[in-house]
Amino acid sequence: MGDRKVIVFDTTLRDGEQTPGVNFDKDSKYKIAKQLVSLGVDVIEAGFPAASNGDFEAVKNIAENIGDVVVAGLSRCVKSDIDKTYEALKNAKKSRIHLFIATSDIHLKYKLKISRDEALKMAVESVKYASGKFDEIQFSAEDASRTDWDFLVKIFNEVVDAGAKIINIPDTVGYAVPKEFEKLVGYVKNHIHDKDNVTISVHCHNDLGMAVANSLSALESGAEQVEVTVCGIGERAGNASLEEVIMALNTRKDYFNLPHSINTREIFSTCKLVSELSGIQLQPNKAIVGSNAFRHTAGIHQHGVINNKATYEIMRPEDIGITTDHISMGKLSGRNAFELKLKNMGYELSRDEINLAFKKFKDVADNKKVVNDDDIKVIVDDVILNTKSFKEGELWG
Ligand code: KIV
Ligand code: ZN
């Protein structure tokens, strides 16, 4: 495989927000977007502007303030959505509309209740209508992995002829298996018009636990863009996890040899932030960032790791930004040590939040000899919850 750069399209703020129970407000979206820039993603899908006024404002705010990264907004293939997306993205340095329509027979028949030809017409007319309004047009064939391959290629070619430059192959319901998905991507790649100027993207869901495996297979098969979410959050069982895809590419560089622009040292703090703001706790055995990911329990394993970490660790925790700081926190610890501890634990808090957390920490430290990382986590969770409900209280009077 060559050394083309993988384009990382992050959809934490759009598909990630479709996680049941998750709702990012404007401030939370902006905080996450800023962290995604530090992480080095190429495209931030900031939301679905036509879905609600709140999301429209959140996407607009990111588009206007975030800087050089490409900002994408999701849009159905209807004029009113395209207009809303334009209003939200028009001041972005680099804007991308992400148009989608379902293409599988089951979605056409039971959801959209339209024919293949009608879907084709809506897709092409929408791409034409969007042309000139955005820097880039991406088109997704929803439920592509259950779509007739020839119809899929037909609709992709027509939208490419109409002006789409990125075509996305979603495994919307997490139905694909890696070898089959690899073949599908290869098939699309071989049949697409203007291949040298079109970017092929994949977007995999995790219903069968294969989102990351399918994404990696697709990259092997020539996909240039991968759509991911931080911690794999998303609709139902979630999306391909950014940290898993990236650390697979890094750890098995010998096999994939695919560069990307992610600064892996920002992974841990990004996951922490998304977990805090989404309220989703990471399972302890979550690959890469779970609390057990670098823990060794069996005596034989501990013995191996003491002699040479590589016996049981295929990645270095510091490469994903996990630092073991050996700072023991207690009542004599000062503010600097506390702030350093928060930073090492991956928290990015506002001044007010730090002040409140430090005060609570001192109260706990008065009654406990050592305040460990778990205690600090409880303190910070409490502070974030309090400031969040305070803000909501302000909003609702
Ligand atoms: O899963 C899906 O098909 C999507 C599309 C909107 C790309 O999220
Ligand atoms: Zn999706």
Automatic annotation (TrEMBL):
GO MF entries: 2-isopropylmalate synthase activity
Domain Pyruvate carboxyltransferase per the UniProt entry, residue ranges: 6-268
EC number: 2.3.3.13
Pathway as given in its UniProt record: Amino-acid biosynthesis; L-leucine biosynthesis; L-leucine from 3-methyl-2-oxobutanoate: step 1/4
InterPro entries: 2-IPM_HCS-like, AIPM/Hcit_synth_CS, Aldolase_TIM, LeuA/HCS_post-cat, PYR_CT
UniProt KW keywords: Acyltransferase, Amino-acid biosynthesis, Branched-chain amino acid biosynthesis, Leucine biosynthesis, Manganese, Transferase
Top EC category: transferase
Domain of life (superkingdom): Bacteria
Presence of the UniProt keyword Manganese in the record: yes
Annotated SUPFAM superfamilies: Aldolase
Family to which this protein belongs: Belongs to the alpha-IPM synthase/homocitrate synthase family. LeuA type 1 subfamily.
Name of the protein in its database record: 2-isopropylmalate synthase
The organism of origin for this protein: Thermoanaerobacterium butyriciformans
